[in-house]
Structures are given as structure tokens and as C-alpha cells.
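Hi, here's the filled form for the chain we discussed.

Project: internal
Contact: R.S.
Residues: 332
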Amino acid sequence: MTNEKKVKLTIKKIGGNKYLYIRDSIYLNKNKIIQKYKSLGRLNRSLNIVKEIATFEEMIKEEEVKTRTDYWEKKILGNKVCEYISIEEMERLRADLYRGKERLSFIANHLMETAFATDFVYNSNKIEGSRIPKTTVQKKIEEGDKGNNEVANTAKALDFFDGIKLPCTLRYLAKGQRILLGHEKSKQGVRREKMIVGNSEVIPFEKIGEEFSDLMSWYEENNYKLYPPELAFIFHYKFERIHPFKDGNGRIGRILMNEILKKHRYHPIIVWNKNRQAYFSAFEKLMEGRNIPLLKFMFEQYKNTYSIYIEKLTKAIKAEEQIGEFFKPSYE
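And the returned structure, exactly as it came back:
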């Protein structure tokens, strides 16, 4: 996920004096962006630019949380969701992490991306029964392993799906599934058999094409209308109900879920392996027509992921400072 710093500084000359202005924006939805400007005052030695920028950023962040909360609470699919989930809390976490990452330099951002890739690959594969220890996953991710193995192929699949444009074709997703399971050719391709997931039968294979087309239509109809996390989580469930491939459906579903979040300017999340039973249980309940348990579960994963990675922001900045100290010239 690539971010660009949004704060812009400009100098305007008025009456022979120079004045510093700052600009930022609040993103609500497609084609709904609120621009914010503020004069920091006359440009002179007494102007504490760093402090003024920090004050402005904090003000914009608070306004963003309130504005986005008011906007999206009206678009939740079913008012009952708000009885169990605080949209304001979700948006505050989003602002802290997403805006925090926007301010990172290349090195710190790379550290954050590597940490997330390690956590995602390890937990996503572990949910599916992988026995590869996290230390091995971390080493392969850090070294950029390009071999034909479980970890490297999951990382390649993440790259393949990065920035995917939905709706898409099943044929396109199948390319990604072949990358994901490059080390297990017998499991590649669209399934042609009945399949039981948990205690329930998924969509009959004869209807995969039709159901996938319906899912893409559902996404296109609801994109930019539903609260983005809700859109992403329900999409994930609907994809898993179709279960189009012989294997890799869960991993691809979680990747697509995160791509939807990223498209709407949210940080991606991790479904933590320690919660796998609750994860499967929530899916079962939605199959019975109860959507609240799944949404509550996924929002908990969202909050857990964001809380962990907000803490990592500070660690990434400190690590970058240490790297900077290491590379200082030994002799002036």
C-alpha cells in the first residue's frame, strides 16, 4: 500500500510580506473530498513551523473522524450494526494508522510493510493448516524469497492482486490462484466437485460461474454506498460461499477483502490464527442468516490489527533513526 503525504505548504506574498499557508484534505468517498486550508501566519524566524504543522494535522484528524463518522453511520447496512460496533472508534483507528503511515519516510514505511506481510502470510496460511513457523516466514519475507514454496507463493499472490480492479473475471482470479498454489499443481483451478466447508455445503460447482457473476454485480452496485469495512467483510463472506477453487479460497478471499479496504483508503487487516474457530463459527452463523456475529468478529480483527500497527508506527520511526545513526559518516 503506497501513501503520499497530503499536507502541502505554500508561500503567498501579500503587501510585500510572505505568509505561509498549509493545505490538507478529508476523504469521505468517491468524488467527495473536503479541502482544508489554514494560514500559519507571516513567514519569519519566530514562526515555529514544525509545531504549527503538528497542530494543524491533529485538528484535521479530529475533524476527519467526526465528519467520516457522521457520513458513514447513515450508510450502514442495517441499523442494528451500530448497536454492536462504534463507527467513531473504527474511524479514529483508521485516522491514527492511515494518516500515521502517510507521514512515514521510505525506510520506516518499508519496515511497516514487511511486518504486515509477515503477519498476514503467517496467519493466513496458518488458518489453512500450515505448519511453517513464523520465524521461517519472517526470514523468507525479509529476504524476498522467490522460490516455489508456500511462503514465497503467498507473497507473490499478494503482489499479483495488489491494486486489483473489481469487478473482475473468474479467469483473472484463477491466474492468482495458480500463483498462490504454484507448489501444489494438483490443487490449481476452478473446482468441479461438491465441497463441504465447516458443516455446510458451499455453492454447487455447476453454479460457480453464475454466482461469481452475481457477486461482481453485487459489489459494483454497493461499492461507494456501503460503509467500506462492511462492504469488504460481506464481500469476503459471499466469496467464501461460492468457494470457486479447489484450494486457496480463504487466502484469496482475505486478500480481496484487504484490497477493497485499501481502495477505500483503509489499512488492510489480519484475521489472526488464534481466532480461527470464532472465524469459522461466524461464517456458519451467517449461513444461517445472522450477519451480526460475522461483522462483530471482523470488526474485532480490524481493531486488533490497527491497535498493533499503531504501536508499530513508533517502533518503525525509532528503527529508522537508529539506521540513520548507523550510516552517518565516520569522519567529517
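Let me know if anything looks off before we file it.
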